[in-house]
Amino acid sequence: MRSVVSWTAALIVAAFVGFWASTAALAQSQPAPDLLSKEIAVGIKEAPPFAFKLQDGSWSGLSIDLWQKIAGRLDLRYHYVEVPTVREQIDGVASGKFDVATAAITVTADREKTVDFTQPFFSTGLGIATPLNNQPTWRPVVRALTSFGFLQAVLALIVISVVVGVLIWLFERRHNEDFGGGAAKGLFSSMWWSTVAATQASTGDFGPRTVPGRVLAALWMMGSIIAIAVFTAGVTSVLTVTQMEGLVQGESDLGMVRVGNVENSSTVAYLDSTHINHQGFASVQDGLAALRAGKIDALVHDKPLLGWLVRQNYASNLQVLDATFDQQQYAMAVPLGSPLRKPLDVALLQTVESDWWKQAVFQYLGEK
């Protein structure tokens, strides 16, 4: 009898604890009464397609639609406060001016020191915008002619030519007056002959006369034809590809061209860490205008933002390369220890896991 009573009591206690825990969790996922009674200040900046103004002055975009969906779930009253930069969004949240900030805010370690972030709602990375129609320029030629591969090929030809010249001198110095007259004179003559022979130019009667010398000369002439043909084809291929595809074909080319970026963006940290020289612009639009004008060769910024602006305003002049690098995540920023963070996390996860979110992403970005 006592065991039955003990088990019953234990079950009652367990049920009570479970009910209390679920009630506490539900309470944490709901905004505190003081948040429901106030109007939330939302720091916002233009970052199409995540946040942009319509002609009537209202806001639209992927992040705007997401915020409105979340605010509806939590019955939050809010108003937008526009600022020009992400830095001002972060500073506004850190100082308490904003209760939350959203648009296209990248989560970084430096920003995490001053604000808290919600669960990320979009994964992205950096992209590269380049000119679409490449104008003829000498820079690809200079770049190809000063590349390490080009210098290696030239050095290899010089070394082989010197070796052949020395061997010709050793074979001919005692049997051919063209290569006689002392070591200095003979070596100079043999080097000159080796160079002229490699270019397939006529040497007249000037050349080897011994059997070993003529065998080596024949091998050198045939080998030089192949070597120069391969060398010429390689250089031509590099120049053709560069002219067709542009100076920048991927992330690895950024160190050799004029790169632009948006000031005070997370892109700066990446470019600095990879030791890529860069020129800052006040906005993405300013950077794209400079790219179109030929003042820079590439603009590095968040890929979805670049893609949107190029498609909207520069489709006939610029392109965004397929490459995506330095993966990043967008999230909403809230003050450190904000009671709004937990409710936002729950509502955000519920929203991004829904079919509505998939449709919204496809609507603005064309991604499924």
Automatic annotation (TrEMBL):
Membrane topology annotation: Multi-pass membrane protein
Transmembrane segments: 149-171, 215-239
InterPro entries per UniProt: Ionotropic_Glu_rcpt (IPR015683), Iontro_rcpt_C (IPR001320), Solute-binding_3/MltF_N (IPR001638)
Pfam families hit by this protein: Lig_chan, SBP_bac_3
Alphabetized UniProt keyword annotations: Glycoprotein, Ion channel, Ion transport, Membrane, Receptor, Signal, Transmembrane, Transmembrane helix, Transport
Origin: domain of life: Bacteria
Annotated compartments: Membrane
Main location: membrane
Protein name as it appears in the record: Transporter substrate-binding domain-containing protein
